[in-house]
Design a protein that fits this description.
Largest sheet of chain A: 7 strands, mixed
Distance between the termini of chain A: 42 Å
Number of helices of chain A: 9
Strand content of chain A: 15-25%
Oligomer: homodimer
Shape of chain A: globular
CATH topology of the largest domain in chain A: Rossmann fold
CATH class of the largest domain in chain A: Alpha Beta
DNA sequence: AATTGTGAACCTCTTCACAGCT
DNA sequence: AGCTGTGAAGAGGTTCACAATT
């Protein structure tokens, strides 16, 4: 499959949300121009992004909202259920367990791991926190496909090593460092402080 | 000031963390090649990023770690204290209050606002949750410079309207939609679900 | 008349490659 | 000899502009 840029994929996620909202308002069709306006991009960008995957619109008329939503959902794999494991049940891990957006999109949190003796055995939202020392067994048993790393920076590389050795191929990393992983493993980084620092830069240099 | 790309600014944040860690290990100098290796970029990229701001290295020798860390900190404005207000004390807002990385970088959370009657008046980490209906008064009183929006999508645009009308020029938005703000206001988006969806796309299409 | 789909033009960011310092 | 700093080349992403379609 042809390489599609990260930006295109991220924008598809945005369009998907927009279409979801419009569908809830019982609107039936929309133009690339309107999607663009709502999502803060250009209409050519919307059409180009979609064109990588097919031709979904009707010239002169625009796109059918429900159809386009389903198409983008399928492209992104949001028509499936994904089993997600969270490693590190601290502030961030805890917040994610309750994050409505995840479940809504088919991301089911099936496993919580921590290495803190005081947390292991406790329950959060009907899920028992298990020991990270048995990570590989649990990841396989729960058939986890995506791992969220929410441990301190000092522990993150080890966590990455363990989960990739268990065959995990997709990682969402909240630890503020660059993880080294084997080829074929996809790591996405989420670092809330980095965006704040970009704001700090902006305020400092504007 | 010449426009610097977001990617460059984000990478400077990464280099900064790397230098901070190296400094803690009492290493004194480093080459662009070594920074690149740690942060997963090319050495030319590191040198180019730095070159937008000045010449900080010594040919043949590399960079002094402490000096470079201070220089980047100054570029990013991390040598100052920033007053941050969090709007929406739900799961995410709550997690941010405790997020160590923030305080470490000079981001001081000074204000918590919510519009839920059951939360107003409660204390979280020595901070009282105030009513969003008095947002403007509180933002001014606490001299807030950066606002974090951690409310549901349906409420986010109104929150953005209120805080920008109070003169806030920097917003970190956790709500999964594109906010419309007046010119001169910088909005950075943080959407944990979008990165998960990129992983979903990868797993679906690899 | 309106709006898509897309090649071509454009622009921006990244990498190359090497002269210039230390 | 080793490594930086940077102009030039290259790659990749975005926007333009218009033919094609409804």
């Amino acid at each position: 499959m042809k390489k599609i840029s990260d930006s295109t994929i991220n924008r598809l996620s945005k369009y998907f949300r927009t279409l979801e909202r419009l569908k809830a308002k019982h609107i039936e069709t929309i133009s690339s121009d309107e999607i663009a306006e709502i999502d803060g991009v250009t209409s050519a960008q919307v059409r180009k992004d979609l064109s990588f995957f097919g031709t979904f619109g009707k010239r002169g008329l625009g796109y059918n909202i429900e159809d386009l939503k389903n198409i983008i959902g399928k492209i992104l794999g949001l028509n499936k259920q994904w089993n997600v494991g969270i490693i590190g049940v601290g502030n961030i891990g805890m917040a994610l367990i309750d994050y409505a957006e995840f479940k809504k999109r088919g991301f089911q949190i099936k496993l919580l791991l921590d290495s803190d003796e005081n947390k292991i055995g406790k329950h959060v939202k009907n899920l028992e926190i298990k020991s990270f020392s048995e990570a590989i067994t649990h990841l396989k048993k729960e058939n986890i496909q995506i791992v969220v790393i929410a441990v301190p920076a000092s522990a993150a590389q080890n966590v990455a090593d363990v989960v990739t050795s268990a065959g995990i191929g997709a990682v969402l990393n909240f630890a503020p460092l660059n993880l080294k992983t084997p080829d074929g493993v996809m790591v996405k980084n989420e670092n809330m402080s980095i965006e704040l620092e970009a704001l700090s830069y902006f305020l400092t240099n504007k």
